[in-house]
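task queued by scheduler; priority normal; single chain, no ligands, no partner chains; default sampling; output format set to structure tokens
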Amino acid sequence: MNNINNDIRPLIGVVGPCGSGKSTLISELEKRNYHCRHIAQEHSYVKHMWQVITNPSVLIFLECSFENSTSRRKLNWNIADYEEQQRRLSHARAHANLIIDTNTLNADAVLHRALQHLEELFS
């Protein structure tokens, strides 16, 4: 983050299905002085809502399977609900600067990948 002015920090948007780890990643990035926004694209019917409302400098997409989403968040939903979230997220996923598959990574490993990417972008 050497070249990031603390007054004009780039906005990091984080999207993904429920249970993918968005809140956890954002919390850890903010502890490191990154300006982040949780984008609830998975709940919007407007495919480019993430651009209209937030328009982040960097978009991070967190992938998560149906099985992991439901077990992590104790969700009572079916595969059709998950597939609808995937449809709603497809535009953001296609435009993401970084996609992290959280299915086999713990929170520290997800953070490490995000930090590595952001440091490459902003150093």
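post-processing summary
- The radius of gyration is 14 Å.
- Residues 1-6 have pLDDT under 50 and may be disordered.
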